[in-house]
Amino acid sequence: MRTGSPASQRGLQVVPGCGALVGPKEISGFEGDTVSLQCTYREELRKHKKYWCKESGFFISRCSSTVYTGDDGQERTEGRVSLQDNPQELTLKVTLRNLTLRDAGKYFCGVSKLGRDEFFRVSLLVFPGTLRPSTQPEPASTEDTRLAPSRTSLSRVSIPMVRILAPVLVLLSLLLAAGLAALGSYLLRWRKEAQLATETQRNEKVHLSHLVRKAAGPNSDPCGAGHQDSRPCLCVSLPGCP
């Protein structure tokens, strides 16, 4: 592809025209897809050279990888980009084949003329092939591109699904993490309460044994050999009880 548009060759900043050239603001597709768009221009631009280029530059917009239209309305192909000017219908058709992730970015559909070029900016979105739905039809072959409808419309049907599902999955992940954290906190609190209850029960038993021994007296031996009562002897099973 040739590099540099008339605007970039003159070192001018790229400034959109005032409606002399119109088209879609955004197109999209998956890796390996073929997408097309149509630029419409005014009657006074019929005989001017048209071009398609990728925007480059940080502070000043310039063109790179520029492709120009052929003569007499013939289709012009350079690499994976094809242009076809139709002066009768005042339209310029741009076709991009075998999309890659590096193709994503801003592009210009323009008309070269003296002074300032007429053009508009187009955003190209390229999604990884792994996100392609299983029901997505196979990409059309080069021979069928002219007869098949634009893949842009087919891609737009599935792309909103990806954009909608992404935040839903993030929300579900956050809810799951919060649920696991709450469950862990509950189990830890339950374990502490169980340990506290066990410790309390043990302390109560010790305290009860002290009370019983204190009430019986220091020399009392109700179950010893000196027991003379005819009633049965009841010996509390306590530490130190024979």
From TrEMBL:
It holds the Pfam family V-set. It comes from the Eukaryota. Residues 16-123 form the Ig-like domain. InterPro entries: CD300_family_receptors, Ig-like_dom, Ig-like_dom_sf, Ig-like_fold, Ig_sub, Ig_V-set. It is found in: Membrane. GO terms for molecular function: transmembrane signaling receptor activity. One of its GO terms (cellular component) is plasma membrane. The keyword Manganese does not apply. Keywords: Disulfide bond, Membrane, Signal, Transmembrane, Transmembrane helix. The chain crosses the membrane at residues 164-188. This is Ig-like domain-containing protein. It comes from Lynx pardinus.
